[in-house]
Amino acid sequence: MIMKYYFIVLLFQILFNIFKVLEIKYTYENKITLLMVNSVWINLVSLTSVYFSLDRLFTGDFWVVPFYICGSVIGKWIAMTQFDNPRFKVFNFLKKDNE
Q1: For residue 60, what are the CA distances in angstroms to 47, 68, 87?
Q2: What is the pLDDT of residues 61-99, one digit of tens each?
Q3: Torsions phi, psi for 33 (to 5 deg)
Q4: How many C-beta atoms lie closer than 10 Å to residue 47's C-beta?
Q5: How far apart are CA 64 and CA 72, in angstroms?
Q6: What residue segments make up the domains of the chain, in order of their start?
Q7: For residues 19 and 38, is the Cβ–Cβ distance under 8 A?
Q8: Does the reported pTM lie above 0.70?
Q9: Three-state secondary structure string covering the chain
């Protein structure tokens, strides 16, 4: 039963960090509609993640903290390595020309 809470926190932290990276990407690309929809998802996911994390912490279960942190790291890694990043491509192209 408790493991279910850990999995929920891990999953929602992964999603939160993916959405956060996408928020930065959509802001950079000036995609307002996608940015607004993404903002709704960020808020829903973060609220859920914080709720379940604090619920476990208030019962004295500190094992939820590693799942919270690992979800954050995994989510950032997924977002940075598995999604297209046009800004990085431009940076690498400009860097090549200077060499």
Answers
A1: 20, 15, 43
A2: 999 999 999 999 999 999 888 877 666 667 677 777 666
A3: -60, -50
A4: 12
A5: 13
A6: 2-98
A7: yes
A8: yes
A9: CHHHHHHHHHHHHHHHHHHHHHHHHHHHHCCHHHHHHHHHHHHHHHHHHHHHHHHHHHCCCCCHHHHHHHHHHHHHHHHHHHCCCHHHHHHHHHHHHHC
